[in-house]
Amino acid sequence: MALPALDPADIAALDDLLTDDERAVRSSVRQMLDKSVEPHIADWFERGAIPEIRELARELGSLGVLGMHLEGYGCAGMSATEYGVACLEIEATDSGLRSLVSVQGSLAMYAIWRWGSEEQKQEWLPRMAAGEAIGCFGLTEPDHGSDPGALTTRARKAGSDWVLDGRKMWISNAPYADVAVVWARTDEGIRGFVVPTDVPGFSAPEIKHKMSLRASATGELVLDGVRLPASAVLPEVRGLKGPLSCLNEARYGIVWGALGAARSSLEAARQYAIDRVQFGRPIASFQLTQQKLADMSLEYIKGYLLAVHLGRRKDAGLLRPEQVSIGKLNNVREAIEICRTARTILGANGISLEYPVIRHQNNLESVLTYEGTVEMHTLVLGQALTGIAAFR
Predict the structure, then answer these.
(1) What share of the chain in percent tops pLDDT 70?
(2) Is residue 223 part of a domain?
(3) Which residues are catalytic?
(4) Phi/psi of residue 49, each to 5°?
(5) Element spanning 161, H or E
(6) Which one of 78, 97, 129 terminates a domain?
(7) Residue 73, in any domain of the structure
(8) pTM (2 decimals)?
(9) 108 and 197 belong to one structural domain
(10) Boundaries of each Acyl-CoA dehydrogenase/oxidase C-terminal domain copy (predicted)?
């Protein structure tokens, strides 16, 4: 039997790991992105804004990728692996766009879907799944990032109402969100609140002058005596279990998404090396360039195999948070190294937005840090390996 032809863009035949349904998801997401986003994304990154963000959110909703791994309430109910494949394709276009999808589905929507009341679910989830309402997730504070248990945003009882005071920082989607899931300290422990962004005392000023995730709007959340009814609290959870469960969902999407940025940069470098002629021949013919391409390909392949493995475990209900940390730590760390190496192959052209590499590299500097820094995920694995917590 003749061996199948070798595809230089998929030398390990990773495509064979996916089911027909997973490949169909990938194809539909890629088709939408190629039509509606790819022609504009470099300009959006340079401008630091997506001009028609609500129209794009509705298009993503029509595609079914907002909260796509959740069941009911207008959500697509797809598998974890299908969600992962979608994240990979979205981040191959831009990490900022994947951040929009992740914050919407894996943080804001998941918090309401997992911990909210039926009234909260009915009010928000169908609109969010359709892209008619945009959500954000308020956990990180100006002085509390890796240590969310020390958060200082307070919620106090005022009769039957709650009154919230505090600030959140580095909140994706905040400037245009319709609803914020906000975590605050109460006399009963840390609680979550579903906060419509048009309530008095709430504001979300945008953070400017970013050099990373420029196509994703980031802001503060300022809560100055925000009064909410008792029905605003997430009734099914107390303590850090609530926000950490949401972060675990988002981290899983990053395991896949970072590979998209890596794949885009690797393919740009491979094609550039074939086309670029120096000393009378393509730079792809030089051994050092081939070594770079080979090493980048190996790390991408290993990361992809890890992502598929974790996706299958998640679909089987067997995925532990420590295993998500393995994927987040490895895949983002290797993806940013792939981008940096790809940049060296492109030379000076590597810093131009005519190519996607520097945009992906800059974006991954944020992805490397958010949803748990390299240091924190390293210590998670260290504790799993030794049984000793080294966080403090």
Answers:
(1) 100
(2) yes
(3) 371
(4) -165, 150
(5) strand 161-172
(6) 129
(7) yes
(8) 0.95
(9) no
(10) 238-385
